[in-house]
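User: Hello! My lab partner asked me to get a predicted holo structure for this protein. The small molecule is zinc ion, SMILES included with the sequence. Please write out the structure tokens.
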Amino acid sequence: MNNRTAVRSTALGYPRIGSNRELKRALEAHWSGRLDAAGLERAAAAVRAEMLDDLSVLDAVPTGVFSYYDHVLDTAFAVDAVAPRHRREDPLASYFAAARGDAEAAPLEMTKWFDTNYHYLVPEIGPATAFAAKPEKAVAEFLEARERGLDARPVLVGPVSFLLLAKPEDGAPEDFRPLDRIGDLVEVYTEILTALGRAGAGLVQLDEPALAADRTPEELAVVAAAYRRLVGTAEILVAGGYGPFGESLPVLLDAGVEGIALDLVRGRSDLDALETLNVSRETFIVAGVVDGRNIWRTDLAKAAEDVERVRALTDRVGVASSSSLLHVPVDLAAETGLPAELVARLSFARQKLAEIYALTDPDGSREPRPAAPDAWRDDAVRARLAGLGDDADRRIPYADRRAPQAERVPLPPLPTTTIGSFPQTAELRKARAAHRQGLMIDADYHARMKAEVATVIAEQEKLGLDVLVHGEPERNDMVQYFAEQLTGFATTAAGWVQSYGSRCVRPPVLFGDVARTAPMTVPWTSYAQSLTAKPVKGMLTGPVTILAWSFVRDDQPLADTADQVALALRDEVADLEAAGTAIIQVDEPALRELLPVRAAGRAAYRAWATRSFRIATAGVRPDTAIHTHLCYSEFGEVIDAIAALDADVTSIEASRSKMEVLADLDGADYRSAVGPGVWDIHSPRVPAADEMAAALRLAVAALGAGRVWANPDCGLKTRRYEEVVPALQGLVEAARTVRAEAA
Ligand SMILES: Nc1nc2c(c(=O)[nH]1)N[C@@H](CNc1ccc(C(=O)N[C@@H](CCC(=O)N[C@@H](CCC(=O)N[C@@H](CCC(=O)O)C(=O)O)C(=O)O)C(=O)O)cc1)CN2
Ligand SMILES: [Zn+2]
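Assistant: Hello! Below are the structure tokens for the protein in complex with zinc ion.
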């Protein structure tokens, strides 16, 4: 077990939803009352067994990385940081109350995990949160692996990241920060580590991804103290995974941790730094050379060079993924429809395990990465982009667009609208599955989707909404739908990746130059508009989001790829406008997500991200309104970027974070209209009309009635009509109430 000369293979984490999304199906059956807790646990055990089967090709396997919903929530439960409102007699009910909310309580806030499309639940910590060790899950999953004879390494979110990812509980003193509680929390971690040690664990992995971000000297002092305290209780491997440790690296090494797992894909500067630090030859250094975030085949020649550099520094070397493999699909072998020259360049989780293993095998492959074929290049697109010049900006400032837009589409104050999608019912998905499998002809599929559009339009008219949507029934996903129609993209049949809880996505593969060959959305929008006198919004996904939710080529800057996508969207916007569409929404929910974890890269990011949005949208007439939509709080960091999009209306997530975004908007150079979401659509809970009215009053007080729209937080695709109809009735009623008060 303590082989000190050979290079050891491992992974920092693994997909946990099941290779065929078994856990997703079991969870959704459980939530709808079709599967009892015992049935859910059986399904979970089968998923864990499959994970261990896969991982067993490695010298050492991570354990405890399975989760019913989210690993940050698991950590909260492991230290008993459960909000009083989520405590229930049944622990599983308590867990799902925190994750999803229930009749009695709103859930925890959900937000993006670093610069990924994974969402974690934000723990709520107060000055009196009574931490207590609950190591049962960690111990049980460790033993499950041990019983198979595997070298098992328990994984937990580390205490510093846990508190940095948390937020102060409601009513905490103004100056309280969760990190203030590090001393108490670390004591509880020592108990958990001790329990794991008693169960037979050697090395324990503590994930500290928050140390891939800029940290202040005070925070570094906290890291030092916390790890000095922990090193006595277990052998600790600290993993980062979302960039370089940077200034945290010497602090961790000085604290005496047993090992450190480096992200050598995004954080190669750590390797240079290590060579200048005085690293003990006893330190276990894990070289994260296999990308945990993307699906390109590893350049084994280059990776092997980095492993050699690590071998020069220490006698205990590991090879691993750069982060958990949670962010990539399970198995490339499930993809039978991809072109061979693409398959030859791809690697999913199972293939990555083989790459990791090969790098620890002296006789393993050291193949370099083959270059992209010439056929993936499109010189026409490149020439058009080069000639774009200042066409990337709207000719007329917002102040002068307001009147022509109001004249073209007259609306009351606090206009009501939705974000785009209506429920993706089981029937819609079945029809799409049948169409995909060739069991339903195109004409029948289109007729079915048009019927759904008609139903959605009729429902919105009945509800009395002001600006309607077609409901997006024809879209499997807001990114994949576009990727399927653009050149330069491939889509997968089963490349599922967890986004949050039971919700999964199939990120498309953006491998070459991008171009549009035909209109992608116009017939749907035009059809919807033909059914109503009310305005129907056109609905597109923006370039940043298309990139963020795809696996993107890494052979040119993201900015260049974004501009190509933007150009394709620009043509779609022009076609929508030519078809008579007066309002075009271009969603950028991932604008915040791609913001670099460290401040150094942010200005450049803001510049290219907002320019690509403007390339997509700036071609319209002054009386055509551009709307955009963003989800997931913490807008503070991107508020200037939101302004730089130069949209006429921006709808944003606000309800789960209790309208905190209004404070961010205050003082920002943002003048146009805002639709702060007043209904948290990620929870099955239906808000009351007066609750939404209260939220709208806050918005009116902050922005003035003339700048506020009334809308949900996000699209309704994940909700059921039983929730949507009463919630939208309440929303329309709330808008009317507050409108009357403001008049
Ligand atoms: N890419 C992406 N990222 C995003 C979002 C988003 O909308 N898209 N929204 C935010 C929140 N994240 C979300 C992520 C996923 C879903 C979601 O609803 N996902 C669906 C799958 C969507 C999909 O691809 N649907 C396909 C395939 C559906 C499917 O599973 N079909 C069955 C067969 C049909 C059946 O009997 O149900 C199968 O293939 O096995 C379709 O409709 O065609 C799910 O997990 O259930 C929602 C929000 C942030 N990130
Ligand atoms: Zn959204």
